[in-house]
Amino acid sequence: METKFTFAKTIIREAGQFIRSAMAEKLKIEEKTQFDDLVTNLDKAAQDLLIAKIKSAYPKDNVMAEENGVRHPITDGHVWILDPIDGTVNFIVQGENFAVMIAYYEDGVGRFGLIYDVIKDVLYAGGGQFDVYANDKKMLPYQDKPFNRSLISANSSMFAENVHGIRDLARQTLGVRIYGGAGISMSQVMSGRLLAYFSFIQPWDYAAAFIMGEKLGYQLLTLDGQTPDFKNRQMIMFVPKQKLKAIKQFIK
């Protein structure tokens, strides 16, 4: 497992370097389901690069990935879950606040996850048998704070519409920060800068944080308190286990 984890850290940085080196070129942008659900030629190229490297090193392993309909259930064998550019809108508009994400599962069990903040050059990696690090700094487990000394993050529409009481919870805190990407948001939670994250996302958006968060005292659940199905887009919360009972008083 150590060999695969080291391999994953290498290829995610290579994908990040590939993206950085191509950012100055003109992007080809396509709409997927609607005008704000975008994909670029770089999303697809970065995914192709990652898959090629995985298949070259581990030809019997399988892949679930965001683009081009690459789907393999995490419960079936050795499965890499890839999000080549998480936060594509941020990537297009801001040129920052986006991440490359990789998670590795064996027969449905998460072995390690990685979230790479490409522009800040910070790699969050670990989970399973591995401690979680941000680059060379070991990350601490959740340190308890009261709501009134905490911030949360949420999908903007879910917050505005008070879905499941997210806005009610936010009123108990110092406020809301919206980053526009699951990977960046959940890395902020694991770093202790945010208390929790609420969104409506796909398996490749949460697979890495699901593994890493468990190691640090966090839990990723649907808003009705169930384990996500790793098949469909679902409303999720990424919260400290220690705070789950208190959060559930507001998240209905």
What is the strand and helix layout of this fold?
Elements: H1 2-22, E1 29-31, E2 38-40, H2 41-57, E3 62-65, E4 78-86, H3 88-93, E5 99-106, E6 109-117, E7 122-127, E8 130-134, E9 137-138, E10 152-154, H4 156-160, H5 166-170, E11 176-177, H6 182-190, E12 196-201, H7 203-216, E13 218-222, E14 234-240, H8 244-248
Parallel strand pairs: 3-4, 10-11, 10-12
Antiparallel strand pairs: 1-2, 4-5, 5-6, 6-7, 7-8, 8-9, 12-14, 13-14
Main sheet overview: 7 strands, mixed
Mean pLDDT: 95
**Total count of domains:** 2
* Radius of gyration, CA atoms, in whole angstroms: 17 Å
Fourth CATH level, the homologous superfamily of the largest domain: Fructose-1,6-Bisphosphatase, subunit A, domain 1
What are the segments in which pLDDT stays under 50 over at least 5 consecutive residues? none
Euclidean distance between termini CA atoms:
39 Å
How many DSSP H or I helices? 8
The structure class reads alpha+beta
Strand residue percentage = 25-35%
Count of extended strands: 14
CATH topology of the largest domain: Fructose-1,6-Bisphosphatase, Chain A, domain 1
Strand-and-helix sequence, N→C?
HEEHEEHEEEEEEHHEHEHEEH
GO biological process, one term: inositol metabolic process
GO molecular function, one term: inositol monophosphate 1-phosphatase activity
Protein name: Inositol monophosphatase
Pfam families: Inositol_P
